Amino acid sequence: MIEQLRIIAVFSSLSEESLHELSNCMEYVQYPKGTTIIRADKVEPYFYVLQSGIARAYSDGENQQITFWFGQSGDVLFSFNSYINNRPGYENIELLANSALIRIKLTDLFLLYQQNLEIANWGRKIAEQELIATERRLIDRAFKGAAERYRDFTAQSPELIKKVALKHIASYLGVTQVTLSRIRAAH
Amino acid sequence: MIEQLRIIAVFSSLSEESLHELSNCMEYVQYPKGTTIIRADKVEPYFYVLQSGIARAYSDGENQQITFWFGQSGDVLFSFNSYINNRPGYENIELLANSALIRIKLTDLFLLYQQNLEIANWGRKIAEQELIATERRLIDRAFKGAAERYRDFTAQSPELIKKVALKHIASYLGVTQVTLSRIRAAH
DNA sequence: TTCATTTTTTAACATTTGTAAAATGTTGCG
DNA sequence: CGCAACATTTTACAAATGTTAAAAAATGAA
Does any domain span residue A183? Predict the structure, then answer.
């Protein structure tokens, strides 16, 4: 079982001992397509790793719903504001396919952070990787047009293009669905 | 001297011992207005805390320069990609006023992360706070128009409005300077 | 398959924002 | 002061994107 965990990239840096400590706090869960596992108005008590499936994070606006993240196998999945500030987050997270996840209760994880130096640094690196990815998207928004962002997205996430509704991809790219259609039409 | 550090919010959570360990790696530096302390094409070996002054982070595009962060007293200041991946970053950081900074060499800091549980968790929280702030900006970009972002900016950073050139604020808000002028004209 | 539902595309038009250039305002230095 | 350099606003026009509505295509359930 520890061996199974090790093949998941996010756990690969941990020693046998730390991985064992962490695995004591893990549960394996499965949910069907369409399940909303994290809700924006609640404090989410778990941290998830997606073993298989697809997820999207979105926020509800007045008359639109904006997707700002997609997750695939191996991605970590958590409500930033629950995890960091113990407050309701900004995001809903919905599964776009039947999915298998590992979950860790935040209260357990936070205890480990105070006890285990390796796990504390593991948690630091997770936040750092999310930070780099989020900064990257902010910069891309500033420097690239919607058409280029669409090309990048198709190149980097070819599976998502096949499986995710274009309306979600449009809002992820920061344009309306009509504009995305026009971009696609201009092949 | 340790007491002086404690009044800086980012250090306030550390114990006497950890703060002492950290302070052994600190240097105090001062630079005049206009100094570029971090360059996008270099690996930046220091982590900074701004004691006084103003800073902005920007990236160079083909024909424009886009500001995506402003720093004030108490803010931490580092090249995300140098700090996280030991690679040249995306950002230049320039001082917009004469500034006093504390700097910590990354190699020293990383050693502390591997030795001191409290400092490792301190580093985790820094990354988490930057992450929350960056996510907040990405979501704001999606849900708020430029006029509302400008109002928010003036409300939250009244000192910056006074001291920073509007062209920098325009690119920070994600619009051209002409559009920002139009927003301002519509009082 | 067929029908109903949902998604995607297309079209016409409105609005916003961008671009370029000129006009005006501001700052600091000799 | 008076000039030079730079910042900001304004104008006119162009380009991109949004809005609304309808048509076409795809999907899923009976």
Answer: no
In a domain, A51, yes or no: yes
Place of tokens 């000192």: B159
What CATH number does the domain containing A94 carry? 2.60.120.10
SS3 for B107? helix
Nearest beta carbon to residue B143 from set A66, A83, A139: A66
Tokens read off for B152: 């928010």
Domain assignment of residue A132, yes or no = yes
DSSP state of B174: T
Q: Closest residue by Cα to the C1' atom of nucleotide D6?
A: B165
pTM of the model: 0.94
CB-contacted nucleotides of strand D (7 Å): 7-12, 16-21
Structural domains counted in chain A: 1
Give residue A137's domain range.
2-143
CA angle A113, A102, A120 (to 5 degrees): 15
**Rounded CA separation B31/A95 (Å):** 50
The answer to whether position A37 is within a domain reads yes
Instruction: Give, for all 187 residues of chain A, the pLDDT tens digit.
Output: 777 888 899 999 999 999 999 999 999 999 999 999 999 999 999 999 999 999 999 998 777 889 999 999 999 999 999 999 999 998 999 999 999 999 999 999 999 999 999 999 999 999 999 999 999 988 888 888 889 999 999 999 999 999 999 999 999 999 999 999 999 998 6
**Which nucleotide is nearest to B145 if distance is taken from CA to C1'?**
C16
Closest CA–CA distance from residue B56 to any residue of chain A (Å): 15
CA closest to A63 among chain B residues: B143
Name residue, tokens 């509704």. Answer: A165
SS3 B82: helix
Q: Give contacts of A121 with chain B, Cβ < 8 Å.
A: 113-114, 120, 124
Of the pLDDT bands very low, low, confident and very high (cuts 50, 70, 90), residue B65 is confident
DSSP for chain A?
A: -HHHHHTSGGGTTS-HHHHHHHHTTEEEEEE-TT-EEE-TTS---EEEEEEES-EEEEEE-SS-EEEEEEE-TT-EE--HHHHHHSS--S-EEEESS-EEEEEEEHHHHHHHHTT-HHHHHHHHHHHHHHHHHHHHHHHHHHHS-HHHHHHHHHHH-HHHHHHS-HHHHHHHHTS-HHHHHHHHHT-
